Protein: NAD-dependent epimerase/dehydratase family protein
Amino acid sequence: MTEPLHLIVGAGPVGSALALRLAGAGHPVRLVTRSGGGPEHPLISRVALDATDRDRLAEAAAGAAVVVNCANPGSYPQWERIWPPLAASILHAAEASGAVLVIMGNLYGYGPVDGPMRRDTPLRPTDHKGELRARIWHDALAAHEAGRVRVTEARASDYLGPTAPVANGLLPRYAQRTLAGSPATVFGDPDAPHTWTAVDDIAATLEVLVRDERAWGSPWIVPSNPAASVREVLRALGERAGTGEPTLRRMPRWALAASGAVVPVLREVAGVLYQFEQPFLVDAAETTETFGIVPTEWDGLLDATAAAWRARAVA
Structure:
């Protein structure tokens, strides 16, 4: 019996981890990126393709049982230009091939929330990036409800893990400084509780969602460890790396606003600063109860992350 083909768009930390998981389980994977890059494995075929080209992407998706959107189109200022045609193209490819569409999402669409975010928490974004992510989900869900495609989405918080790149999130940027023995300037409250999601846990969740029809028609929160503040995580990484207590300097909101007037990416950070000014928490109990997924053990995750991020900081 031939194993079903999985088409993955994007070979960042999550797309690569998922591709290796699926290939390791014996599933053929077609990995689409602009450059044709990604991990090497006998069951992974890497395709150089602009995924916004809906006709070419639909051709690449022909015969696929699952299409997974793991794309990450550049920095915040590029989202409004790149995401709409990219998401529409991936949705079209899933419809044209009859594949299940699995979307790698985030928590931006919820906006500021009092208490933990759950999969049924209403989407009430206050920033254009959150509005964009909510629109991507609503468009896909509308296609699902119309019977044109079967769709689900995994929603994760900020990445933690050895493969999380410096460009992906604020925590790796802070650690790039503190694990090199330098002070780090941080945004928001470094002592506010915050949920961090292991890259491997995201891939593990996606691996389940691609094959379990109970996931269809709904988003699912990726199981994550109990919340820890920015300071607590950087301190734990510093202890493991031997760099000691991190020195953190908090940038006032007014200074961020002033900088954002001339630096576009800082203006975009201001739009999601609420995530670091108050507790930012998730409740993934339904995901665990339904699919049996549990987060990676915290100490082991920190051990591996500290080693990799320290090596990167001093390289």
